[in-house]
Write a structure and sequence with these properties.
- The protein is of the alpha/beta class.
- It has two domains: 161 residues, Rossmann fold (3-Layer(aba) Sandwich), CATH 3.40.50; 75 residues, no CATH class.
- A six-stranded mixed sheet has the order 6-7-8-3-9-10, sandwiched between helices.
- The longest helix is centred in the last third of the chain and has 18 residues.
- The relative contact order is 0.17.
Length: 259
Amino acid sequence: MEVSGLTKVFPNGTRALAGVDLTVEAGETVVLLGANGAGKSILQKSLTRLVEPTSGSVRVLGTEVTTASSGELRTLRRRVGIVFQRINLVRELSVLTNVIHGALGRAGTPRNWMAITARSQQRVEAMEALERVGLAGVADRRAEQLSGGHQQRVAIARMLMQRPEIILADEPVAALDPRAGRSVMDLLWQIAADEGMTLVCTLHQLQLARDYGQRVVALRDGTVAFDSVMSQVPDSWLRELYADEDDGDVPAFVEGLPS
């Protein structure tokens, strides 16, 4: 990925991004860190033009995203797996059907709308994806019957059905309890390592960034505040990163940092 001079200004005048430059190499795992409103999610959504940038350029997997046609964007988005904060499963359908839906971008036949009508090849691949995330045993259950952590694992299995080359995870554990969140983070990092995939994960939680972020790109007010190996980031940088947050939102780790 190559991002150069990226800006995003909304019609009401809010400047979400103010000249972001970023390069991510193939196979790299990167955490985008920052306070609420820093521009993390807008930057990530700009990578596949789910948000239309105001200016600047984005190149992903050889595609010039900012000038790509609708057909080129569809092709690119099939190669990029996205894990959202809102899990967006079809709650009334089975876990297996939800996972099979991940293949619709490359095999958009109506047969894949339901597990019972999908081709055997798609069902087998979906079961393999569920096995990968440790949930093969609940394939026949309705998605709404699972815990939040398990639903996010189903969403990851659905993403794997795309056969993506890049994973973009946008606050994937924000709605989960700490134990379930770490389980999902472990899973994402293991998949990226096993497949040699590029992973960009947006986080608000500083401690998770400390534990998982080998490379951390921190955003503040729509610009890159620092881009570093997490183990080399001084505490003063982290305190400054969250300085404007309300007391109730400041991570406990930041509150304990020396001034």
